[in-house]
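Researcher: I'm preparing a figure for a lab meeting and need a structural model of a single chain. I don't have an experimental structure, so a prediction will have to do for now. The sequence is pasted below. Please return the structure as tokens so I can convert it later.
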Amino acid sequence: MLEISSSIFAYKSSHFQFKRLSLFLAVCAILCFSCFGDELSEDRLLGKWIVVSAARNGKETKTLEDGYFDFIDESTFSTNIFSGEKEYEYVLTNDGFRQLGVNPVEYKIADSQSDSLILLTRIRSYEFLFIAIRDTIINGVEEL
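Model: Understood. Here is the structure written out token by token.
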């Protein structure tokens, strides 16, 4: 009788662990796939983004301290991260956007929130990481 009881207990215990594991995996799958539903749109990019931190080849750089990206409309942005301010055409890609022109640049959006943006790119032989925050100052007045 003791053998049967311990067999039943072992079965119930492993069955309970299987149910817990299944529930955990289901929750993980839901959370994971819900992230994919949050598609990038031009609307999320529109506006000015101030670079608050930048790294070149994994080392923080101060040369891009006053940098910004200003997404003017659904196809044009301006930036000063190169030499001086310049406007560029862009298109959205699966995971970021592509700066069009003679020297196109691919930007991967590593993270995007309503007030922050993390961009990764390669320009010439340099890897760049830009951390930017949305500029809430318009014409000297802070937006609420």
